[in-house]
Amino acid sequence: QQPVQSPQAVILREGEDAVINCSSSKALYSVHWYRQKHGEAPVFLMILLKGGEQKGHDKISASFNEKKQQSSLYLTASQLSYSGTYFCGTENDYKLSFGAGTTVTVRA
Amino acid sequence: NAGVTQTPKFQVLKTGQSMTLQCAQDMNHEYMSWYRQDPGMGLRLIHYSVGAGITDQGEVPNGYNVSRSTTEDFPLRLLSAAPSQTSVYFCASIGGRTEAFFGQGTRLTVV
């Protein structure tokens, strides 16, 4: 079953922040986050393996609440290069399922 | 190191035809999977494999077949193509339950 992502889309001005949420109905071993530019393959951002863990990638960070089976991706001080579609992936028993994606548009 | 090689990049099929999408990885990863991507639906898992000789169904397996005879290769077969299978297909490879590496994608159109 696919995890549920929200919001579906967000529009930002450069420098603004955003949060993308991901939730699953199943217990998770890990949560992945990827970004996809138009016409390209998804690219790995980060993986979270433990409950309550937070990781960072430049000004993009994420948290994972294992008990609630939820993860959030934080885009801080957004840049034009952050535009794209963000996917969360949830892994359980080696089965990696992705959400429907959140389209992020950053404008100058 | 090529990573994940997926072929072809583009394909047009007639309804009822069969074809095989190829996927190969050179990273010695145990875990490989196939996804289809449709507008507004994200990446949906078709089939996956946790090692040679082991495959399992994902969320949308109907109309597709897979096999994993070697660690490197994980082909996806469309048995009798239908217009509903028009999509972009991605193969992915994961080592040690870490990040997924994706192939370049195959844009398939069934007419």
* Uncertain residue segments of chain A: none
Please tally the β strands of chain B and state the result.
11
Sum up the overall morphology of chain B in one term. Answer: globular
Report the average pLDDT across residues of chain B. Answer: 95
Quick one: which chains have the greatest interface? A-B, 24 and 26 residues
How much is the radius of gyration of chain B in Å?
13 Å
User: What kind of sheet is the major sheet of chain B?
Assistant: 7 strands, mixed
Q: What is the number of strand segments of chain A?
A: 11
Number of helices of chain A: 0
How would you classify the helix and strand content of chain A by structural class? Answer: mainly beta
The oligomeric status of these chains comes to: heterodimer
Fraction of helical residues of chain A: under 10%
Strand content of chain A: over 45%
Counting helices, strands and paired strands, the structural category of chain B is mainly beta
**CA-CA gap between termini of chain B:** 36 Å
| Average pLDDT taken over every residue of chain A | 91
What's the SSE blueprint?
The complex is a heterodimer of chains A (108) and B (111).
Chain A: E1 4-6, E2 9-13, E3 18-23, E4 30-36, E5 43-48, E6 54-57, E7 60-65, E8 70-75, E9 84-92, E10 95-98, E11 102-107
Parallel strand pairs in A: 2-11
Antiparallel strand pairs in A: 1-3, 3-8, 4-5, 4-9, 6-7, 7-8, 9-10, 9-11
Chain B: E1 4-7, E2 10-13, E3 19-25, E4 31-38, E5 42-51, E6 54-57, E7 64-66, E8 76-78, E9 87-94, E10 100-102, E11 106-110
Parallel strand pairs in B: 2-11
Antiparallel strand pairs in B: 1-3, 3-8, 4-5, 4-9, 5-6, 7-8, 9-10, 9-11
